[in-house]
Amino acid sequence: MEKILMSNNAGSSPTTSALKVALVEAQELDLVRTWKLPPDQFSNRAGSLTPSSVAFLSQTGVWPYVDPARVQPYHHMRVWDGLDDSSEISFSSSSPPIATMTENSNLQRALLQRLSNLAPFSIFDSTKVALIEAGPPESLQESLDLSSYPCVTLSSGKKIMTRLLVGADGVNSPVRTFAGIPTRGWDYGRHGLVATLKLAPSYLHQRPRDMATAYQRFLPSGPVALLALPGDYATLVWSTTPEKAAKFKSLATEDFVAMVNAAFRLDNVDLEYISRLNTGHIEELDWRSSVIGVKEDEARIPRKVESVQAGSIASFPLRYRQADSYISSRVALVGDAAHTVHPLAGQGLNMGLSDVQSLANTIQYTVKHGGDIGDEMYLERYNGEMWMQNNRMLGITDKLHKLYGIGWGPLVGIRSLGLKMVDQMGPVKGWLMKQAGGMVT
Questions:
Q1: Is the pLDDT score of 438 beyond 70?
Q2: Higher-scoring residue by pLDDT: 424, 172
Q3: In terms of pTM, does the model score above 0.70?
């Protein structure tokens, strides 16, 4: 997604619209351009966009192409401790919303529609990078010194020389490997379980869109979140052990639904028991809910899940990664090629968009001042701005994951007290929301 946005930004800026841009994409972009789902179906790959991300997409002319019927802002959020349900923090914002949910495919399609209305680009889709080398091929007769220029050989055999190679090519980035930039980090030993869910009707009459609430509960094995989509739909993001993720994916549909409902309602002991069952989750959930007296209150827990969209249950490993640098000579990294973050704060996509915005501003600055866009001296503006900013977010999410993964009694009490105190401090909550929303001025 970041590479298409980089192309959009270059074409939409008067300063950089004259630059020659080549977009290399492994997937077939016609499938993205023609992507369409019925109104009652949603992709399980959905992102939570902060107000600053939406503002950036509007600034570049992309947001008007996003299908508004597949967009859901949420103005309320409740986060609580799975080992102490009284320990919680809640957020509310009337304007702008706390965040806006939409499917990645909806956003990618909008990016391509916007791109088609800009100056022509060289687009190579259904194409992979076969080789990256420094310097021109022997067949190129050139009087200029191009020894530092990356030469990209495509799977089609075509070769492209470039002043600046932007790596938006994922966690196993070939561009990062070519540049010799090491990464540091670790695997969490957790998987992110995702699914598209259909919720029970709201008890609120004609529930307005701005009543949508995001819910997140921190369990010892990882946080579970339910994020609103349009209508009575939601996306699930559950961080749990690989063994539990595999177990939940193997359950019958009705048992999977009951397991998700249990994750937001039962205490941890009951939840651990029901998670070991192979079947019978519905009856077990109903009995245990009646015993502990679960109250269905949308202000505290999400509406019950009624069904799960066929084929939407999937999982992926969770990692922490940070490149030692986002730049080298004639190379810049953005998105997952530069960093990989735990999804508990929903910041992965937003961090990638912020990378693109910063790098685009750096390129515009360089062009305005007659500089070489591949020169490390100019690229350092991007690296200096984004590396530390992203490192802070990576550190926050990593520490939260580790803090809430501890079930030791005294520490649970201390963190519960701390969360309750923060929830009572309006200015502190406002600052946290601005940090998460990228609205710091």
A1: no
A2: 172
A3: yes
Name the residue type at position 401.
H
- pLDDT tens-digit readout, 187-229: 999 999 999 999 998 876 555 666 799 999 999 999 999 999 9
